[in-house]
């Protein structure tokens, strides 16, 4: 990680931009901001924070994104297209290979009913405005077997998109933090934002270690965005959603095309996931019923996994908005304060770093980002 020596200089002078949150969303934005701004800092709780960035599946995933908000599908596809640039630049700056692979992705279907429902879902998704070019194909069992050797007898088919892929989320977080030193970002750990005050044209953020001043503030602190947003005129309706993951031992690399619920890491270990539970903040424990369901589906998909041992499991809290879509907005009452929150920190890392950060530097979000504002919640409630 970036040296903590810069923490000693916090509060000396004024930052051009201060990012609250050092996870994948905040780190990608800070790295992107520092490409155009001279003084950027990141306030981070440190290891006591809810770390969705270290508990996720690591998919760079377009498939199924955007139902009910086509702009989200377009935004996701844009990020997938920018990912090679992000990965290559981080490798050049830090020497850290984030192990990006974009060989397409599969959503496996285990019954005729699942096939019919999935086909209808994808057709409806593609029929939305702006989604006509959404690339996908329904594969029958024989087509899938050519792509996924050893597929189980219960599998009826799959949907496939050519733009999906994977990355290593831990290496991505490491690369971004390592890059901070290269681009001049001050990383200030163990300094959660406690209070945000407007001081003329500047903003003052109170932390346990003192006050940090900046011209722009970016709230990227996940579940903490709700309370912080209230201080700067932003309604950020986010909630925790628990996800559980099973990790299996390393084997020879055989799975080249990731599934939405199953992937093999670059070093050979297997991950099984995709649980979604409304468990609240207090419960981050794993549960055998959920893990059993995940394991059963994985083994039905690839029966050879019966011979691969489970080595550990974990649970983490996703950051979910009221409707599940990202929130990007500038405060009307506190110009220069932005919020960025989503549950797809890996998938959207490239868009955050290379598309959203320049908008924040310019002081306004592009017009086509309007669907992501919190105004959508108030319209629904009116």
UniProtKB/TrEMBL annotation:
Q: Which InterPro entries match?
A: FAD-dep_OxRdtase, FAD/NAD-bd_sf
Question: Record keywords: Membrane included?
Answer: no
Q: Which UniProt keywords apply?
A: Oxidoreductase
Residues forming the FAD dependent oxidoreductase domain are: 16-357
Q: Which PANTHER family match?
A: FAD-DEPENDENT OXIDOREDUCTASE DOMAIN-CONTAINING PROTEIN 1, SARCOSINE DEHYDROGENASE-RELATED
| Record protein name field | FAD-dependent oxidoreductase
């Amino acid at each position: 990680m970036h040296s903590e020596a810069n923490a000693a200089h916090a509060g000396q002078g004024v930052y051009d931009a201060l990012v609250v949150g050092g996870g994948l969303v905040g780190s990608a934005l800070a790295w992107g901001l520092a490409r155009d701004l001279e003084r950027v800092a990141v306030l981070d709780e440190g290891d006591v924070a809810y770390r969705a960035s270290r508990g996720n599946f690591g998919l760079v995933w377009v498939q199924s994104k955007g139902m009910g908000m086509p702009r989200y599908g377009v935004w996701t596809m844009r990020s997938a297209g920018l990912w090679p640039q992000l990965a290559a630049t981080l490798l050049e700056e830090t020497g850290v290979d984030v192990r990006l692979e974009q060989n397409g992705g599969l959503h496996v279907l285990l019954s005729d009913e699942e096939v019919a429902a999935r086909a209808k879902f994808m057709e409806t998704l593609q029929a939305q405005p702006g989604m006509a070019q959404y690339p996908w194909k329904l594969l029958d069992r024989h087509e899938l077997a050519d792509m996924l050797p050893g597929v189980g007898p219960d599998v009826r088919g799959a949907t496939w998109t050519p733009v999906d892929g994977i990355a290593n989320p831990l290496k991505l977080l490491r690369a971004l933090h390592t890059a901070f030193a290269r681009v001049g970002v001050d990383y200030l750990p163990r300094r959660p934002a406690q209070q945000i005050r407007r001081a003329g044209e500047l903003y003052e953020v109170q932390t346990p270690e003192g006050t940090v001043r900046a011209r722009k503030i970016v709230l990227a602190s996940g579940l903490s965005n709700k309370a912080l947003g209230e201080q700067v005129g932003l309604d950020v309706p986010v909630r925790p959603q628990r996800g559980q993951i099973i990790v299996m031992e390393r084997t020879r690399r055989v799975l080249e095309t990731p599934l939405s619920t199953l992937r093999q890491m670059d070093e050979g270990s297997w991950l099984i996931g995709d649980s979604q539970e409304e468990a609240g903040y207090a419960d981050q424990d794993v549960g055998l019923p959920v893990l059993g369901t995940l394991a059963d589906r994985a083994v039905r998909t690839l029966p050879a996994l019966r011979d691969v041992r489970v080595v550990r499991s974990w649970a983490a809290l996703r950051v979910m908005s009221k409707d599940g879509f990202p929130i990007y907005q500038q405060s009307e009452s506190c110009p220069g304060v932005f919020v960025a929150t989503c549950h797809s920190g890996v998938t959207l890392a490239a868009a955050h770093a290379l598309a959203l950060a320049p908008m924040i530097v310019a002081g306004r979000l592009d017009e086509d980002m309007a669907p992501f504002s919190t105004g959508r919640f108030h319209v629904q409630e009116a």
